[in-house]
Amino acid sequence: MQRASRLKRELQMLSTEPPPGITCWQVEERMDELQAQIVGGVGTPYEGGLFTLEVKIPERYPFEPPNIRFSTPIYHPNIDNSGRICHDALKLPPKGAWRPSLNISTVLTSIQLLMAEPNPDDPLMADISSEFKYNKHLFTEKAKKWTREHALQRNKKVSENGKENATDPNAPSRKRDALCSQQEAEKPVKRPCV
Fold first, then answer.
1. Is 86 assigned a catalytic role?
2. Which of 7, 41, 58, 80 could covalently link to 116 via disulfide, CB atoms 3.0 to 4.6 Å apart?
3. Residue 146 has pLDDT above 50, yes or no
């Protein structure tokens, strides 16, 4: 009962006052399965990316932390290839920092902060951590590449057979070409002063 009322209150708060760059909602009206999205922070290699996370609420919540993992691939020293996250707020004491006073909103916010400021001294991916520490430029380039490949939202259209097709922004478009030629025609002609 305590779990259900608390989750209801937290979901209400997440829908009315979500933290900046974070959204969270129920999956198919189930209180124990949530999905969240975190927008990559400005000035980070994840900028412009939209990262989806699965949030599973255990039976003993809030006395146990939620189980959260990334479903969007991300190149990060504290997140492994299956999306598991190495973060103190997701573990019980004595090794972790989870407390019943924390909530889903604060945990998602701390994951957003972890994305912006990785902790290479407590890695889940040792090779990425080493790269972050000793070759930050290479790490940044790889993280940006993964963000472009996996987390950037593209305009999608649904074809007649119901499959999604990503539209190529560089592909010729009659509408875009017509708009560009119309704008060109409306530009005043610059004449040199005599």
1. yes
2. 41
3. yes
